[in-house]
Amino acid sequence: MSGSLDSYLVLSGLLFAIGTFGFLARRNAISMLMSIELMINAVNLTVVAFGAFVPALNTHAAVIALLVIAVAAAEATIGLALVMAIYRNRKTPLVDEYDSMSQ
Amino acid sequence: MSWSDLGTIAPVVASVLVAAAILIVDLALPNRRQAIIATALGGLGIVAVVILLQAGHTGSAFGGAYSLDNLTVFLDMIFVAIAALTILFGVDYIEPRGLPIAEFAAILVFAVTGAMLIAGSTDLVLLFVALELMVLPGYVLAGFARRDPYSTEGAIKYFLLGSFSSAILLFGLAYVWGITGTTRVDGVTAALAKVAAGGSIQPGLAMGLAFMSAGVAFKMAAVPFHYWTPDAYQGSPTPITAYLSVGPKVGAFAIALRLFVGALGPLRADWLPVVIVLAALTMTLGNLVAISQDNVKRMLAYSSIAHTGYILVGLAAYAGGQHSGLSAILFYGAAYTFMNMGAFAVVAALQRRPGVSSQIATFAGLGRRDPWLGALMAVFLLSLTGIPPLAGFWAKAYVILAAVQAGGWLTALAVLAMVNAAAAAFYYLRVVVYMYMREPADELRPSSPGLLFRVGLGVTCVLTLVFGLFPAIAAAATNAAGVFGG
Amino acid sequence: MPIGDSIPLIGIRWDDVLFVALAATLLVSALLVVTLRDIIRCGLALIVSFASLAGIYVLLGNPLVAATQVLVYIGAISVLVLFAIMLTQTKNAPARLVFQTQTLAAAVAAAVIAVVITVAVLATTWPSAGQRLWTSTTDVAHLLFRDYVLPFEVVSVLLTAAVIGGVYLARREISGDGENR
Amino acid sequence: MTLPILSLITFTPLVGVLALTVIPSRHEEIVRRTALGFALVAWGLSLLLLVAFAFGPGGFQFNETVDWIPAFGIQYKLGVDGLSVLMVVLTTTLTWISILASFGPIKERVKGYMISFLVLEVGMIGVFIALDFFLFYIFWEIVLVPMYLIIGIWGGSNRIYATMKFVLYTLVGSLLMLVAILATAFAFQAGHGGSWAGAFDYGQLQAWAAGGHFANDLQILAFLALFLAFAIKVPMFPFHTWLPDAHTEAPTAGSVILAGVLLKLGAYGLIRFAVPLYPFAAHTFAWPIIVLSVVAIVYGAIVSIVQPDLKRLVAYSSVSHMGFVTLGIFVFSATALQGAVLQMINHGLITGGLFLLVGMVYERTHDRTIAKMGGLAAAMPIWSTVFGFFILASAGLPGLSGFVGEFLIFVGSFGVAPVIALASIVVMVLAATYLLWMFQRVAFGALSDFLRGLGGHLTDISGTELVTLAPLAIGIVVLGLFPSLVLDLLRGPAQSFLAAAGVAVGG
Amino acid sequence: MTYLIPLIPLLPLAGFVVTGLLGRQMGRESHQIAVWAVVASWLVAMVVAFAALAHGFGIGDGAGITLWNWIPALGFKAEMGFYVDALTGCLLIVVTTIGMLVHIYSIGYMAHDPGKWRFFAYLNLFMFSMLLLVLADNFLLVFAGWELVGLCSYLLIGFWYPRRSAAEAAKKAFLVNRVGDMGFALAIMAIWTQLGTLNMQAVFKLVEGGGLSSTWVAVVALLLFCGAVGKSAQFPLHVWLPDAMEGPTPVSALIHAATMVNAGVYLVARCNPIFGAAPGVMVVVAAIGIFTAILAASIAFTQTDIKRVLAYSTLSQLGYMFASLGVGAWTAAIFHLMSHGFFKGLLFLGSGSVIHAVGDEQDMRKMGGLARKIPITYVTMLIGSVAIAGVPPLAGFFSKDEILGGAFKSGFLWVWAIGFVVAGMTAFYMFRLMGMTFWGPSHVDPEVEQHIHESPLTMTRPLILLALPAVFLGLLIGYPPESGLLHQWLAPVFEATIAAGGRTEAAYSFLGIDGGLAIVTTLLVVTAIVAAWRLFGVDMPAIGLHAEPRPDRVREVSARRGLDFLYRGSSAKWWFDDLNNLLFVVWGGRLAGAVWWFDRVVIDGTVNGIGTVTTQAGLGLRRVQTGHVQNYALGIAIGLIAMAIGYFLIAVR
Fold it and tell me: Do chains C and B touch (3 or more CB pairs under 8 A)?
């Protein structure tokens, strides 16, 4: 089981789906942010799993994973800064109350 | 890494240095806006020179991760132009609202650096990282008026959805990488050529393609991945909207060129139906909803969705076997850049004084109140409509020509595009109606924009006309740029 | 260490047990992240899931990534998130209604995505070696600074830009009208 | 190198536009006269062209060719045959008349108006002389914008609806035409081993079509697209409803140009492009089009009878009159085709005159409701006389030009199938009905209360107004008595049209 | 001589142009140029006419002149050319003579009308048009003249345009004429497509040579006859002529009695080779003609407007002419055309003089006893009445007698029988008119009565001049019957057709059938006259005749069972106007309204509907943009799933 690529890929897929669910279902901007982090982690798990099982990808996987983590950090920075900024305007972190523009 | 590698990516390096220079000037000479603007524009000028020095050369750097070809040069020039125009338009808008110019310019240049990197990327990882470099500053720019609830709201929507789509795209990239075993575009192409020859696509690859397509479709604002566009465009400060409407969009099409045309080229018959459906949905929905908009910014946002649809027709034509579809995409991208930026710039000019809305009523009587601004807006709108001899006409003509050449379903798509273009005339011309055929509700003073702004408007207008009157010149460049990869 | 590959008597492999445990922890904590009512607990659950993921990385023979995971995710991002939570939690914030009205649709969509991925994964023949490979950190370093030096540099620019942008956005304004620029 | 007279004619108005942009808009009188001056120069040049034109041989004369977009073989190629010459002269004539007729009525934004008119003239002339399919399309679209502005800015109360309808209708047609043009060019290119040279060149396309090289299904689709574009412009039933609105709302001169020239663009396109390039399709659809034409002839006349508004009545009568033109084209008879072209010119002269006359009344009364009129024969005798003259011309009185054109179409179509003439000839009575009834209500009887209320404003027409009408009236009489002036010019074009259209018949 | 021919129409045309442009400035003298132009034209016409008659021009050998190639289209040709033969000559005499006299008469009649210059300009234009019609050498040019006389008729009927009824009548005349013209136009097209020429002489030659199939001959003849029916106001297109009396009386005399309405007769006569080759159509011609004759006569019985009585009388007489044409008595038809032109012109001008005298009153019930007050008018009108009634030896007797005899002898007994009855009716209603107008007690408004006076010389002189041919024309050119001057003149025109018809004209026999018919007819006419005297009075002291009118008796007779229906029908003009009104004005108007409704609601509604649907679709679709970011994300997720499924489908393809 732990020796099969499939199980890791399925695991990452489930993680991705859970993240998607959180992103679609949560109202709080920070919750959505956390869901995205889950999704990115799912990608990383995929990458590392490929690296662990496919010889040609082995080293590359680690590099890619590292870069992805860095990008995710940058994204989180911007995201949290935006949350702070809008919280200052709206006094609420609940995204579904940000609907002054529609249709 | 070697010096020659650095030479190949010189424009990108120069661009980063410009951003740094802006920040340094800001720290060294606080409250000296002229210095900052001069640094930014001068720096971009240097970048442009660097790009032009590369014209005609080809090469690759970093072991094939970055390639310099005509496409890179062409797109880089567009991106630099976008950056310069955005600064020209932005200053007049940013300043009265008490927002910092240095950060604005620096972040913008960072974003454009990302776009330029995309233009040259021939590596999936670099492509993704460059994409992030392009869009992350974009989120900041969208929320740049951070005391404005609309701006921050648009920004956070843009950010959340953008990150969501980035994750999707990344997921897809991971699978394509896992199956093809390489991140280099040429490697992917080679691997997929085997797949195409073998005739069967593994479900894992199909899923990867799907996630990737969805991610790219999101970035170019194709239906049904377009939702972020209207809110982000409407909320952003108008000159930044002008930037968002062209920069990330052309960038997204650059990704499409490098990724779909370059890497996924062997499978183009397989992604052709997807592009056709996307194109049809995108232009139709964009136009239909644009018709019912009363806010010009939002209307232009939907119109930009529609234009995505037209450009996708070019991509479909390529997939349908017509290489001319690629130069059509590039021509469209260039023409669209200038006319659309021009249109948003006029909106920005009207909103120079804070508190002026972008509702269509603002445009009532503009033709009389401010004849030059009105005439320019009319030119941009007519060009967007596709009336000859303006840039937008040739853009459509080239796309349609490519589609017609490809034949089959693509001819039907071309007809649909033209029906859409006719419907689009309704909302573009509605603005002209307000400008020339209605009296203003209250007499607004002419908003006499500053010198930089006028230069920017002049440039966009002249380019719109030049592209229209002498399409052969631009077409030569796009034809050259359309030949890349392999 | 002279421990067998598998649990004595039952014959189940140790790393399978470890995998199941870690995977279960990961999924449960991830589910808690997206379902818990109290957002601070969500944040804590997120840390747990990050940690279990790091464990899986180790299991996959990639300790470098696992370490980075711990440092960056648990050490930086999670802390950042928790700070943000604290800053945006007003006392009278509505604790009820953590979910959207579209929760059911979201669940269905997520389930479909899970099925799509699972089916695709299982139906595909992967170019797998059939066994886990150990990743050499030295090789990673070489690769990073040879083939991936450009992305690496770009990421550094990206982080710079993100910091500048983030600081600009999150900076509290000095007075009501902000800077006089 | 010979004098590029065609380019000179085309771009003289453009020079006028540049001149106008320099003149400050407060000098309205100078603006007006400058515009008129340039229009007159263009007119003079076009007359020169008419004189210099060599009668007799077919083919195109005064050709000018410059490569424009070599990558696709798109050229700036101009040339005229008898048909084009006539249309150019009609255009230049009506343009200066329209500009002169606008001196009084247009008091606001004079400069913009005059610029629009001159740009319009450029486009219209260009359409008639372009020998490159793509260039033709460009000029075709250029026409759209100034007309859109003329109706939308200087039009009546419901102008915005009218102008949007006009533009959208036209665009739907023309954009599909673009697809067809490109498809045709591509078929040509594919048939020439991928070389784009000549793919938009009219002469080469036509020769290629004459060789029967365009596949039938391409012909069908391309023809339908072109036909839609041209039929909307003509306008043919049932694509005509933009016309009454556009005419009603347009300023007088706009209506004159709209009726006088713009409608001809469609007919010209059918004669020049749609039929010769796609003869198989043209023959396939000939009968349905003939039926539509006959319906238009009768239908337009019937609807005209009950129109309450003078301009609207004249507009619907245009539908009827232009039905003759399409009929004349699609019966594929030399007689009928010559009649159709003559009818195009006649319609330009007659309906142009009618719109001018209606405009004169509108200037004085600010109303066009027929029911409010009455007794103008006594109040404005000269106006009434001239109006009566144009009405009779419109009703097809022998001796005036309208008769000759219609009769030639009748004879030509009778030769093809008597039933066509039988069905459409009722228009002789219907046209007389709506015209004379309208004339009776407007001119005869006692002066209406509404008009009496205007008192001294109801002056008879002025010298300037008479100057605008005189060329039209003279043209109507001269062409009525000496139609050979036009018919001789049309010999070549008619023969080559039939030769081109006959391809499918032969095989 | 041929060079003189174009002068005949061009002189009045020049008069029209000059008078039309300068007439307003010429003031009181505005008639001069017009009148002199016509006089000059008359002189030339006389020269040309007598030359033509003396030479006996027939088909193909007349004098022709081509001015220019009018319509030289590919596949079509029509020239501007004139042709004169004997038939033309006869028409020229009638048209120019009566035209000239009417012009002179109008000097006095229109003296005080402010629009006099306009009137004379129109009259000149009419002369031009009529002469063009008569002289034209090809069908298209005939058609041109045909339409132009219609136009002049329109202009002159509506001359007093402020009067609503005048304007209505003018329009009606033009439109009804146009209905017939459609047939004429179609005939021309048929001729061109079948024969390739429109030159009449060439066409006749071809037809005689059998160049036209019998079907096409019939079609062409029938279509030509349609035109004739319209212009000559035959049933069912007769409705316009009585209304045309709204025009000034000289117009009625000239256009609506003596010249234009004869154009139809002229056309049929001119096309005798065509009609001769279509015997079936000839029957139709005869039937329509004779039916119109009795229909119009029956209406004339009860009309009270003096001009309307004359108008119906004109219809009736034109019917005679068509009957004559139909039975093949070509010359008789032309003969009647000429004599009728003179005496009906005389009667109309006389009635104009009467109207002038009684202060523009046209209702005969408000006249009476005018004989002594306007003697010249009275006497000339009496001559006219006797002439039209057919009392020997006046012009009408000879011409009518020839028609009836022709019908009888060619076997059209039913035509003869009806014609016979109509002869009596004609005599009756004419003397009813005389009685009500000139004899019996005066019913004139007393105020007007004081001012009754004879008309000026310009008006009475033409009356006298017209009375002369009314009396002597028959004897002059119609005697001896069937071999008089006219017969000799016209023989070349008709002989071929008559010969082709297979009938040789039997010699006139005074003591045989011809004389018998003449006597019977004359007896009937005299009886009818006497009956009219008994009912409507007579007062001729010179020959000792006197009878008071008996209005009570008239009422009593007309109220009799059986007769009351006829009386009502007659006075209601057999409801033709009501029928037309219902068919064309009411239902036609509704149809046009319905079509317009269709245009607005269905066609334009579809166009606007597409716009509305598009806009509504846009409004609907924009609701998707809810503003809630999670909704957007859900949309993206669904799009993602759709895309994945799409790619799966592509992959398994």
Answer: yes
